């Protein structure tokens, strides 16, 4: 099934780990706000129908894009945690997105996502449990004590780093996020909510340069990566 999918873009964070004067999604990356790079990558994908951008309260920086590459760009307000923002975005999707329809969720803070990786996720054929981009852990994993000393070497086999986009049926994702919220569990990604609900999302290996811009030093890396993707 090649029906175009809507993508929820959580962009309501404050970017505290960057420490900038404005939320990181609006800080300049290669001369333009970071978020615009991400939105253009998503909107330019032929199998993405529209974007639901989730904004923070009193967001004074949102440029008000209504259309990108001919795709509708809608907005709604997010919440205290990323998962609250994702749930708000899923709920705010237009009625053309049925509960059985698949949706994508992609961090505004991940501007380097590759079109080919999005396509490979979509080419999974809409598996029942959904799917997500990620990469197997390739470094040795240490658990640190409070003093920052290596306490234990954790097993590395079968460990993956989760990226976005993540792709699930709208109704199942909404229900899973609501159940986690009601249980007082702050899920760190959509797949965690779906796992709690008994699903087993498929992991699709994607490029490791699909970085999440999290600290100030990530901007230089993201700029370098974007320059090589032209
Ligand atoms: N309440 C929140 C928190 C985060 N996000 C979004 O989720 C993505 C990943 O979150 P993260 O990288 O942690 O961004 P921030 O929460 O802004 O960063 P920090 O934790 O450093 O404040 C970002 O696009 C961010 O805007 C969101 O929509 N709503
Ligand atoms: C969703 C995510 O990008 C997958 O790795 C990650 O969990 C977001 O974490 P954050 O602390 O909200 O940036």
TrEMBL record:
Superkingdom: Bacteria
Gene Ontology molecular function, alphabetical: 2-C-methyl-D-erythritol 4-phosphate cytidylyltransferase activity
Top EC class, one word: transferase
Entry EC number(s): 2.7.7.60
Pathway entry: Isoprenoid biosynthesis; isopentenyl diphosphate biosynthesis via DXP pathway; isopentenyl diphosphate from 1-deoxy-D-xylulose 5-phosphate: step 2/6
Transferase in keyword set: yes
UniProt keyword annotations, A-Z: Isoprene biosynthesis, Nucleotidyltransferase, Transferase
Its job: Catalyzes the formation of 4-diphosphocytidyl-2-C-methyl-D-erythritol from CTP and 2-C-methyl-D-erythritol 4-phosphate (MEP).
Name under which the protein is recorded: 2-C-methyl-D-erythritol 4-phosphate cytidylyltransferase
Organism: Dyella kyungheensis
Gene that encodes it: ispD
């Amino acid at each position: 099934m090649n029906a175009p999918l809507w993508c929820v873009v959580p962009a309501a964070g404050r970017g505290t780990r960057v420490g900038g004067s404005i939320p990181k999604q609006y800080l300049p990356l290669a001369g333009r706000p970071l978020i615009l790079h991400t939105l253009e990558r998503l909107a330019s994908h032929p199998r993405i129908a529209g974007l639901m951008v989730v904004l923070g309260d009193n967001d004074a920086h949102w440029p008000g894009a209504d259309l990108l590459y001919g795709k509708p760009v809608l907005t709604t307000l997010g919440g205290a945690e990323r998962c609250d923002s994702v749930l708000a975005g899923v709920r705010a999707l237009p009625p053309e997105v049925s509960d059985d329809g698949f949706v994508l969720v992609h961090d505004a803070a991940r501007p380097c996502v590759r079109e080919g990786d999005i396509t490979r996720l979509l080419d999974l054929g809409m598996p029942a449990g959904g799917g997500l981009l990620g990469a197997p852990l390739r470094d040795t994993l240490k658990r640190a004590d409070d003093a920052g000393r290596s306490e234990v070497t954790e097993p590395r086999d079968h460990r993956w780093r989760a990226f976005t986009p993540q792709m699930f049926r709208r109704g199942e994702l909404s229900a899973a996020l609501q159940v986690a919220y009601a249980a007082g569990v702050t899920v760190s990604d959509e797949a965690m909510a779906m796992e709690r609900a008994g699903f087993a999302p498929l992991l699709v290996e994607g490029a490791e340069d699909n970085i999440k811009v999290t600290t100030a030093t990530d901007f230089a890396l993201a700029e370098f990566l974007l320059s090589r993707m032209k």
